[in-house]
Design brief:
Blueprint lengths: L2 E6 L6 E6 L2 E7 H7 L9 H24 L6 H10 L4 H13 L5 H15 L4 H10 L4 H12 L4 H19 L5 H14 L4 H12 L4
Antiparallel strand pairs: 1-2, 2-3
Helix pairs in contact: 1-2, 2-4, 3-4, 5-7, 6-7, 8-10, 9-10
């Protein structure tokens, strides 16, 4: 066969229709066409057609991953799961991830750093919550442990927990003026625990805000 015509698709001009011997052969992305340097007049036999199909499938996988990344940074596991949902072959997924890593478009360590930074800026939480969420997103435990410890090592966690405790108590006493002290103390401890702080940080905050060592 010989390529007789290459034209833009009407509804998706970024994609191309390839015709061989006057008959439609395949629809491909502009990236695939560029990679293979296909032009009108080129011969295309069964071997070249297989390469065309493989290249296009791999490009489709990469474009799917890039669209997924366009909304927010992703971990490798998130991208792998997304591509599996789209029923790409494991080899295509592996090659796509390798290409994204090489282009610095995915980096789980950098993802962890950004996630921790944003989480601490938006709503201070403790290491338990940070680690749990990062592990859930697929970041390796060694990376999670290192980056969480590095980030929190530069933050006065005692002051952070105390500030949260004071805010909680002030709001609680405004909304529930007659709430027993012991009940408020329990709710405060539970609140700080849900935010991922350990008892080593919660206890001093309780003592400072509620006047108790329990």
């Amino acid at each position: 066969m010989r390529i007789s015509r290459i034209e833009n698709q009407k509804k998706r001009p970024e994609r191309k229709n390839i015709y061989a011997d006057g008959k439609f052969l395949a629809g491909v992305s502009a990236e695939t066409l560029l990679k293979l340097a296909l032009r009108t007049g080129d011969e295309i036999g069964p071997a070249q057609l297989r390469v065309l199909q493989q290249t296009e499938s791999l490009q489709t996988a990469k474009n799917t991953a890039l669209r997924f990344l366009s909304t927010r940074p992703r971990t490798e596991r998130e991208i792998r799961q997304k591509l599996r949902e789209k029923e790409f072959a494991d080899e295509e997924i592996d090659r796509t991830l390798e290409d994204l890593r090489r282009s610095s478009l995915i980096d789980d360590r950098e993802f962890a750093r950004l996630y921790i930074r944003d989480a601490l800026c938006l709503r201070p939480v403790g290491k338990v919550v940070l680690k749990r969420k990062l592990l859930f997103l697929g970041v390796e435990k060694t990376i999670v442990d290192e980056e969480v410890e590095n980030a929190l090592g530069n933050i006065d966690q005692t002051a952070t927990v105390l500030a949260l405790a004071r805010q909680f108590v002030k709001k609680a006493r405004t909304m529930r003026k007659n709430e027993p002290q012991e009940k408020l103390r329990g709710r405060l401890a539970a609140y700080l625990g849900r935010r991922g702080f350990g008892w080593d940080l919660i206890r001093p905050a309780l003592r400072e805000t509620m006047g108790t060592d329990e």
